[in-house]
Amino acid sequence: MTLSLRAALVAGLALLSNVASAQTADELRARSIELSFNLDHAEAAAVTREAIAADPASLAGYRLLATVLWARTLIEQGAITAEDFMGESSSPFRARQSNPDLEQARADLLRRTEALAAQQRRASRPNVDATYQIGAAYRVLSGMAGTIDGSQWRSIGAARRAYQDHQRVLALDPSRKDAALTVGMYRFLIAKLSAWSRLAARVAGFDSDEAGGLRLVEDTAFHDGPAQANAMFSLIALYNQTGRHDDALKIIVELRRRFPRNRLLWLEAATTELRAGRAADARLSLERGLQVVAAESRPLGFGELARWRYNYGLALARLQHADAAAQQFRAALQGDGLDWVRGRTHLELGKLASRSGGAAPATNAFRVALQICEAAEDEICVKESKEFLRSK
C-alpha cells in the first residue's frame, strides 16, 4: 500500500469517525432536551455531558448543559410557571442563589463563547451556524444574569449580542427558525416595556414589535426543528400576556402529549384557565395534577405544593365552594412558599371571611396580606388589601 493511499484511508476513517461522533452528539443533545422538558434534569445533565464528550468542539453541548442546570435551579427557587415571568408579581423567586455546578457551566460557556466569537471575527466570511451558536449562548447567559443574578442591567450586554447575532443569521439564512425565536422574543418583550424603557432599548440596539415578534416565535413553534419545543413553552407566556388563553391552552395540551412527565404543565393549564375565567376546567386540571404530584418520586420545586393548593383554592372559591377553598388556602400556608403566594393566600382568606360575615377574621387576614405583599413588592396584592381594609 502506498503512503498516499494509506494517508487517504486514514483521513477517510477519521472523517467517518467525526461524522459518526457528531451524529451521536446530536442524538444525545436531543435526548437531553426531551429529558429536561420532562423535568428529569439530573438525567438530562448526564446525557448532555455524554454529548460534550462525543463532540467537545461544539458550543451547543456546553450551552445545553448550562441551560439544563439553569432550568433545574429556577425550579428549585420556585420559578415554575409562566406566571413567574409575566410581571404579575415583582418578586417571583426566593433569594436568588446559584450553585457550583451551574457557575462552572456558566463560566465554561462564557469562555468558549468568547473564544468562538474571536475566531469568527478573524474569519474572512461569516459562518452561519457558528454565528447562531454564539448568539444562542449569549441568550442563555443573558437569561441567567436576569434570573439567577437578579440583574437586568448585567443581562443587557449579552442580550444585545444574542439579538444582533441572530439578526445576522436571519439575514444570511431566513429559514433559520431557531434564530427567529430569539429575535421574535426580544421584539415582543421590548414592546411590552414602558415608553422610556423602549427608548433605552432602541438606543441599545433592540427593535420593538409586539405583533411581528409574536409571529416569529409562532413560526418557530409551528415548524419542526431543534428550537420548536422551546418556542412552544415561550408561547404560553406570550399568549397569556396578550389574552389569547385558548391558544395558550392548545399549546399546553400538545406539550403534555410530548412531555408526559412534566407535572407542571397541569399547573400551567390551571393558571391559564383561571385567567380565562374557566374555574371548572381549572379545578379538573388541578385535581389531575395533584394526583400526579402525590405519585411523584422526584423533588418538588421550592413552594410548589403551596402553588398547587393556592390555585386549587382559587378555583374552588370561584365555584362558590367556600369551605373547601378555605381548606386549600390554609393548606397552602403550610410548609415552604414564596412570599407573594403567601400574601395572596391571606388575601383570599380575607375575601372568604368577608363574604361569610366574619369582620374581625377578614380584617386580620387583610392586614397580614398587606404586610407580606408590601415586603414582596406585590403591587396588585397591596392595592387589593388596602381597598378591602378601607371598606371595613
Question: Care to give the gist of this entry?
Answer:
The chain has 392 residues and is mainly alpha-helical.
Question: Can you give a write-up of this model?
Answer:
This protein is mainly alpha-helical. 76% of the residues lie in helices and 0% in strands. α3 (59-76) runs parallel beside α5 (128-147). The longest helix has 35 residues, at 3-37. The model is unreliable at 1-20 (pLDDT under 50).
| Number of β-strand runs | 0
Spatial shape: globular
Order of helices and strands: HHHHHHHHHHHHHHHHHH
Main beta-sheet strand count, sense and barrel state? none
Fraction of residues in H or I helices: over 70%
User: Based on the structure given, which CATH architecture of the largest domain is correct?
Assistant: Alpha Horseshoe
How far apart are the first and last residues' alpha carbons, in Å?
98 Å
Rg over alpha carbons: 24 Å
Output the CATH class name of the largest domain: Mainly Alpha
